Amino acid sequence: MQNGNGHVIIRQGYARMYHLNYKRILSWCFFDFANSSYSAVIASVIFPVYYVNIIAANEHGSGDLWWGKAISISMLFVAISSPFLGGIADYGKMRKKLLGFYTILCLCATALLYFLKPGMVIEGFVLIICANIGLEGGLVFYNAFLPDIAHATHQGRVSAWGYGTGYFGSIISLFLGLLLIKGGYIHIIWPVVALFFGIFSLPAFLFLPADARGRKSIAHAATKGLRNTVNTLSKIWLHKEQRKFLIAYLLYEDGINTVIVFASIFAATTLHFTTEALIGLYLIVQCTALIGAFAMAKPTDYWGPKKVVMLSLGLWIMVTGATYFVQNQSIFFVIASVAGFGLGTIQAASRAFYTQFILEDRASEYFGVYTLVGKSSAIFGPFLFGYLSSLLRSQRPAVLSVTCFFLLGLMLIINVKGGFPNVKPLPE
């Protein structure tokens, strides 16, 4: 049936008849729980400091340079390869196998960090590139399972559940890391992270939908997949609403990535946070991000992901504006808590929004493009922040440049048609 505005409405009680496959959903969420141990400990908090200051000694900033190069190279590889690998996964019916390959790559490279000694800069550089490619590349195929495990009417909340459990995994793994540091076993942290990731990712490989039989050879799948991906990119660019969404996503995700990269640097440099305070700040952000992801799970389906994205962008604009004026650490803790709530919300809602544009049986291909845009967004914002901070010798004007990314993203997303509550009738 339809309402007066012409929107399709699900029959009363129909949604109750639809039974979610909770085994698949939980196993999908557990993968996010598992890989967040890498994101928190290796990519964000503990290992970067260890590599820069202990392995590379950071003489004249050389450690910062090596770390920056490793992250940039890995992200560049993932950004370029994701759309094509997504096409290969869809056409070759090997999504789960490719997820397994990338996961094993990340686990092995992370565990091998145990053997690093001071001065082994190149070895650490190569290992972190491999580990980061393994994690970020695998997320293309992980995201592509979402349309397979949840009907469109439930994808918003399932997406939020995934992010929420991921933040919970970050909190637990970071606490484990801190316990090992206090015990003097910092080098043990890296294989523990690999073990944590490996154990809790197992349900995904046991219970997520298996690859279809009768798949093509890898060479044949690669050729056809690349051709299909080029066609997909062309179709996406010609699809006005999808094009507007991806441009908006590129802008506001650039702002989010800039905040993630420079939040701790701003806190340490401008507000003089100690290392312990920074770790506490990170834990608070993860906790509030977890709360935000779960609190806005159902509203994402009921209100529609577009409205949730818009509300989140409004929140981010207020957060960055307040950060420009903040003068003491206590207030910054409050601002960071609000930012964390918006982080969990906007990431889950954006993923749910994008699923509304995906064609049937092309999820990996489309999420490859989504990943390409997301990873590409980690380039310009951080560069602009660093340039303005250096030019003006203050990080505060650079903070306002981030606000511009959120404003532009909001202006574009308002004009995207779509992102309404997904009320297409469920199959009988």
Describe this structure in words.
- With 428 residues, the chain is mainly alpha-helical.
- It folds into 2 domains: 21-204 and 224-237, Growth Hormone, Chain: A; 240-356 and 379-415, Growth Hormone, Chain: A, CATH 1.20.1250.20.
- Helices cover 79% and strands 0% of the residues.
- It is built from 17 helices and no strands.
- The chain has helices at residues 14-17, 22-55, 62-92, 95-112, 121-144, 146-149, 155-182, 189-207, 218-238, 240-269, 275-295, 297-303, 305-325, 329-355, 363-376, 380-392, 395-414.
- Helix 4 (95-112) packs antiparallel against helix 5 (121-144).
- It is globular, with a radius of gyration of 21 Å.
- Residues 1-18 and 423-428 have low confidence and may be disordered.
